[in-house]
């Protein structure tokens, strides 16, 4: 199964259209969006982004980011593409999602305590599932800010250490583009789509294992 992963669009409709034009001839099975569809705006702005992905006519799911309006989750749920606090199966692969972020110094729109993040993960995860999370796990290559602070979730890291999911797709920290590992778990932050970044992931649905990840830019 081939997955295209994107994150942090931040309302850049032009970039979204450019990206979709770029991948329309690409062969893939599923597209996953790891949050921040908008930049502190609501469902109308988010739908203006989502409709571009609908026009691609490929299966996709999304979570909201910490910068998405309070009504964005409702819109995603109405379209049946939300993965926040939810599990779906696609081609025999389970995928669970968690939107928003851990608590930040900036009091953004969607923030959860570490306890809440833990509960969402525990309540939805089944062995071998992929995790789509806006926030990355703590103390990794993919949660390090420009000033050197690790801003990821402690609960997500603990969950990965204890459960070893095969793949975690995240975003949130724009500058922390990359791939990291915690045990057998591969973690990818594709980088912000608003700056032309995305990732392509080849996943073996029978073995529940990542075969390859490439970081792309257009």
From TrEMBL:
The keyword Metal-binding applies. Residues 1-175 form the Calcineurin-like phosphoesterase domain. InterPro entries: Calcineurin-like_PHP (IPR004843), Metallo-depent_PP-like (IPR029052), Phosphodiesterase_MJ0936/Vps29 (IPR000979). GO terms for molecular function: hydrolase activity; metal ion binding. Keywords: Metal-binding. The keyword Metal-binding applies. Its cofactor is a divalent metal cation. Belongs to the metallophosphoesterase superfamily. YfcE family. This is Phosphoesterase. It comes from Thermococcus argininiproducens. The lineage of its organism: Archaea, Methanobacteriati, Methanobacteriota, Thermococci, Thermococcales.
């Amino acid at each position: 199964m081939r997955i295209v992963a994107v994150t942090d669009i931040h309302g850049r409709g032009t970039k979204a259209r450019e990206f979709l034009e770029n991948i329309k001839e690409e062969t893939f099975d599923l597209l996953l969006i790891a949050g921040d569809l908008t930049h502190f705006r609501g469902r109308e702005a988010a739908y203006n982004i989502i409709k571009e992905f609908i026009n691609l006519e490929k299966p996709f799911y999304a979570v909201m980011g910490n910068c998405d309006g309070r009504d964005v989750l409702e819109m995603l749920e109405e379209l049946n593409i939300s993965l926040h606090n939810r599990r779906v199966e696609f081609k025999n692969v389970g995928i669970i999602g968690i939107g928003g972020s851990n608590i930040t110094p900036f009091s953004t729109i969607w923030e959860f305590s570490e306890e809440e993040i833990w509960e969402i993960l525990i309540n939805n995860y089944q062995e071998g599932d992929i995790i789509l999370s806006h926030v990355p796990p703590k103390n990794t290559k993919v949660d390090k800010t420009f000033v050197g602070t690790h801003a990821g979730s402690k609960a997500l890291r603990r969950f990965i250490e204890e459960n070893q999911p095969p793949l975690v797709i995240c975003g949130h920290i724009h500058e922390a583009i990359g791939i990291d590992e915690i045990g057998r778990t591969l973690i990818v932050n594709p980088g912000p789509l608003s700056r032309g970044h995305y990732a392509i992931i080849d996943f073996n649905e029978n073995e529940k294992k990542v075969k390859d990840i490439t970081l792309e830019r257009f």
